[in-house]
Specification:
The radius of gyration is 22 Å and the shape is elongated. With about 300 residues, the protein is α+β, with helices and mostly antiparallel strands. It has 3 domains: about 5-65, Roll (Structural Genomics Hypothetical 15.5 Kd Protein In mrcA-pckA Intergenic Region, Chain A), CATH 3.10.290.10; about 65-145, Pseudouridine synthase, CATH 3.30.2350; about 150-305, Pseudouridine synthase. The chain has helices spanning about 15-25, 30-35, 100-110, 135-145, 180, 220-230, 245-250, 255-265, 295-300, and strands spanning about 5-15, 40, 45, 55-65, 75, 80-85, 115, 125-130, 150-155, 165, 170, 185, 195-205, 210-215, 270-280, 285-290. The two termini are about 30 Å apart.
Length: about 300
Amino acid sequence: MPFVIKKMYVEKKQKAFLYLMNELGYSQREAQRFISKGRILVNGEKMLKTAGEIEGEFEFIYFEPITKGLLPTYVEEEFVVFDKPSGVLIHPQTKRTPYSLIDELKYQFGRDANIAHRIDQETSGLVLCAKNKKSERDIKMMFQEREMKKKYLALVHGEFKEELCVEAPLLRSKAETAIVRMVVKVDDSGKKSKTDFKPLKYFADTNMTLIECSPHTGRQHQIRVHLFHVKHPIVGDPIYGQSEKDIIKFLDKELTPTERIKNSGATRLLLHASELEFNLYEKIYRIVSDVNFEEICKSSLVVNISQ
């Protein structure tokens, strides 16, 4: 479990954030953020005041990264790139999340290393990570200024016959229900979004097409929603194109692989972040995933019906 509770003791009364800074090496901002999130417990109660004081025994909830042996595919002095498997979270969703990519990054490269951008849990592929706070700021600014060129591979339903540019604005639903809140839709009042699509290979036996996706903007679920919008949903998508009943079953982890392949065509979302190209510190990088995505697609279309 990455989040652990450690008992600590301080002899003289002092500000809690100063203890975290002086004894554990956190910055003032980090220390005060931990306190405001309830990471310090005094007599079992959360301390929420950032100027609160501690004396004697208390407990501190902190992130202790673990490793499952996932190594980066590209390492530089200022950054590393992981080729994330489908199903692995970028960050823990709760304190009970057993493992995420941030575990590997901090376990291997230290506490100041951080992930610079996100891809969905089910999306596989390249994730750029900073090794220190300066490179984190610079890389995030690069994404913010849209100076990062990204390419994805996707397997979609139907024959995708020609190159296509989709410029459909995207809006995240503001409805109250949890199921609707996570769904993004095309809406004229949404944010400008643009994705280029290029067909690579058509598979007549399954009526599916392998395509290259080049997003110019970075909206949540952008590629997935744009492809659903043009009636070529991604094979294995458990959200877009599915009934509310099956979406809920998926979110509750009650949808079996057999049911999922029947509904969406595969046991996972067949979307892969395949290429990153950027200019950082006066050097141009072009990093390409060495994963054979076509083989992954083939294996994901087959399910062991034993349930």
